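Exercise 3.2. Students should predict the tertiary structure of the chain below and write it as structure tokens, then compare their answer with the key that follows.

Predict this chain's 3D structure.
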Amino acid sequence: MKKLTHRAWLKAASAVSAVAIMAGCGGSVASSAASTTASSASAATGETTAAKDYSDISANFDITKYATAADNGVELPALEGPLKLNISIIDYNQSSENTKVQKLWEACMEHYLGCELDITWKRTPLQDYQANELVVLQSGDVPDIATLNKGSAVNEYGEDGTVLNLANYMDQLYYYKQFMQETNGGEKFAMNEDGSMYYFMDGFYNPDDIQGAQSFTSFAYRFDLLKEAGLTPATTLDEFTELCKNLKAKIDDGSLDIQYPIINSTKDYSLYRGFVGVFHTWDCVYYNEGSWRFGPIEDNFREMLKYLKTLYDAGYVDPEFATADTTAGQTKATTGVGAICPNLWSGSAAAWNTAATDKTVQWGLSYLPKNETYGTPWKWGSKQAGKSLSSYLKGIYIGGATEHPEYAVAMVDYQYSDEMIELTNWGVEGEEYTTANDENTFVDSITSTENPALTVADLGIISSGVCGSGIPCSPYDFNSMLSVSSLPEPWWNATDGYYEGKYWVESDRLGGEDSVAPYDRPPVMYLTAEESTQKAQLDYGGACESRVKQLAVEFITGQRDINDDGAWADYIKDIKSQTDEDFDTIIATLNENTVK
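Answer key:
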């Protein structure tokens, strides 16, 4: 992570600002770990309290390096006694309770807000939290602050006052505004059309602008088999076809001990999802060239199905590509059923290599093959550069009836600061990480462990991916995540040959700027709750996309003739019939409500 730009002046301002903030808040104010006898007077209560000592938590933690609300010109009303809050959060695989980072998070929050905290934490496992989240909102009896996993569904509870309208507290927002401004679409992305804003969106910090992708960015190949046969992964679609042909010939003459060239990883993601980016389309509703459209009824999608049918007809594809679940997919990958998997999540290749009883099995990755008609294949889930927000489900809301809304807003806002992102993602400098050339690196005692992600999870570091200190969802630092949560996998490209690389980094490096798909950078769109419900029928998992999955298999296997224009017209009619309202009207509504 780049060094904090405001840290130097915070040191100089800390002595003055600590006194200033106390005048408005009262209670104890955290001071340096080395200062155990200093005291501070509260204008609100007239009490004097000793500054806190954090040496039992961290030898290097220095609270004077951290900001206060007063430093930022954020004014908070006078407060009698401690700030009492009920906070409901998700407990992930590993609880953050009593971890080092959680304790330091609370220390920093006391320092920033200028008051003592009295928080009642309600921790709930992820699955249970998701199941009951809307029930809590519907009851109206919501906590002061809560993790959100339902995204914009919370808006209707803001309209009736159950959830706080953050737009009314813009003076308490200092750090979140930067995330709003830097996100694709700007501040409007985080706001509703009327300017209201009912939750803090999930934040992401990408200091090195690595626009890598999550998955569906590469094909997996059995590297061991390709090496043995003197073959390499494909860089173009024509090469891919030729590779499948060569593999099939070796299967037929008995020189290659597998059943089919191509397998699928799971029935949950159709085989064609690995190819949509190659043909510059998508498998549900998406934005492209200035308008919203439904990918599966585009000509590009039809071309892709025609291509997949040629692979199927040639005997290159496992006949169970549409019915084998994830478990079966792993079995096929680890027992020699196939040599290529075009549709998989990042991490799958490494998991298959670990699971294979035959340790000569080596699955590896290569970037999507290029279709010369369309150019660089699009990858799915490209991260934005710098600081950004995501509207995808996760975030934080504040209860409309909270007694101290200014404090609650300022508390969550502070999680978006550089220094709190660094603390929650890296820990304490000199203990969990070191800094050189403005870059952070975890210390050897972490990176040398068998599982660095679990090692930092024990400390409450959120980049572990399994522990969420503070109030989830606080922003992730991409570099920290890459350090401990992204394991190297085998890769190949025509320039470097075979090597080890990390999915996010390689998908950015090999794909380049042209690989960023338009569906990853859509403009802002304002929809009513009813319009959002209609759009959901066109989204992934909606009625239309679910029907596409069924009918596409029939085209690939020849039950329907993909080359018959009449059959294709019937297919489009069938897909459009799945919506409650007129399909074309829904698309028109999306375009009418998009900020140009």
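Discussion points: Residues 7-209+386-433 form a domain with the D-Maltodextrin-Binding Protein; domain 2 fold (CATH 3.40.190.10). Residues 120 and 489 are 42 Å apart (CA to CA).
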